[in-house]
Design a protein that fits this description.
- By secondary structure, the chain is α/β, with parallel strands linked by helices.
- The chain has one domain: TIM Barrel (Alpha-Beta Barrel).
- 45% of the residues lie in helices and 13% in strands.
- Helix 6 packs parallel to helix 7.
- It is globular.
């Protein structure tokens, strides 16, 4: 299927207190995204679901559904156990999600045939649009273009979030799925080239900070104004580098704290941002014109 997502989907952080989710801050983060994003992705990599209890995940979905109005709500449901991924997908549908993001199985290192069967099972168990998430640097599994072409035949497969970092592969995948399901950028450093290659949307970490500007970037490409898109992409370069100076979501959580949001620290085994990277982040944010409030 095509057309499920267009523009900007923010890979949202999960704010924590010392002993749970900070729902007061989560409400503020969702309201901040309503100013520019077309969708939010909760419980994706940036949301740290690997360190959350099942009860916390369910509470976050319920709360987000109650506080997301204009945007689409997409829930991360993938995992390295197909049965659990399917159960999580059904829960997301029951709680009112508009779509799900299903990362490839990790650690198991399944075959390409295993990937097809994994997505077949998830798509077959829900009526929601499903986005495949290819991030081999984290999972050890890569959705090859020919495999994605087969996965694209599933009726409710909405597209692929590409974060392989391999533009040659992205271009081949785009050519094979075009018109059958959509291509989404899953790597902020490659947002512009992926959009220019026909990407329908960006699923962006950086949009936590600048949802309006990420929306402008997608609109520039859609309108064919690549000169303006390049200017904005150039301006975002230092901020993008700073937001990935350590493993995601360590820097972006620190950045949102600098903007004045009480997001707490990443959960172990992730650690607080290193001092030198915090200063790099602070400098990049100031240079971009963001107001430091903390």
């Amino acid at each position: 299927m095509t057309g499920f997502l267009k523009g900007v989907a923010t890979a949202l952080i999960t704010p924590f207190t010392g002993d749970g989710v900070n729902f007061e801050t989560l409400e503020k983060l969702l309201a901040y995204q309503e100013e520019g994003a077309d969708a939010v992705v909760i419980l994706g990599t940036t949301g740290e679901p690997a360190t959350m209890t099942q009860e916390e995940k369910e509470e976050v979905i319920r709360f987000s559904r109650a506080h997301v109005h204009r945007m689409k709500l997409i829930v991360g449901t993938g995992g390295n156990c197909t049965a659990n991924a399917l159960s999580m997908t059904k829960l997301a549908e029951k709680l009112g999600a508009d779509g799900v993001l299903a990362v490839t199985p990790y650690y198991n290192k399944c075959t390409q045939r295993g990937l097809v069967e994994y997505y077949r099972a998830i798509c077959g168990g829900t009526s929601l649009p499903v986005i495949a998430y290819n991030v081999p640097g984290r999972t050890g599994v890569n959705i090859l273009p020919s495999t994605m072409a087969e996965i694209a035949e599933l009726p409710n497969m909405a597209g692929i979030k590409e974060a392989s970092g391999n533009m040659s592969q992205v271009m081949e995948t785009a050519s094979l799925i075009r018109g059958r399901c959509d291509l989404y950028s899953g790597e902020d450093a490659l947002n512009l080239p992926i959009l220019a290659a026909g990407g329908a949307a960006v699923i962006s970490v950086l949009a936590n900070l600048v949802p309006k500007d990420m929306k402008i970037l997608t609109e520039c490409v859609e309108n064919g104004d690549l000169r303006a898109a390049n200017r904005l992409s150039d301006a975002l370069l230092l901020l993008t580098r700073a937001c990935f100076s350590e493993v995601n979501p360590i820097p972006v959580k620190a950045a949102m704290a600098l903007l004045g949001f009480d997001v707490g620290l990443p959960r172990a085994p992730l650690t607080e941002i290193e001092p030198q990277h915090l200063e790099l982040l602070r400098s990049a944010m100031k240079e971009y014109g963001l107001e430091i409030r903390a």
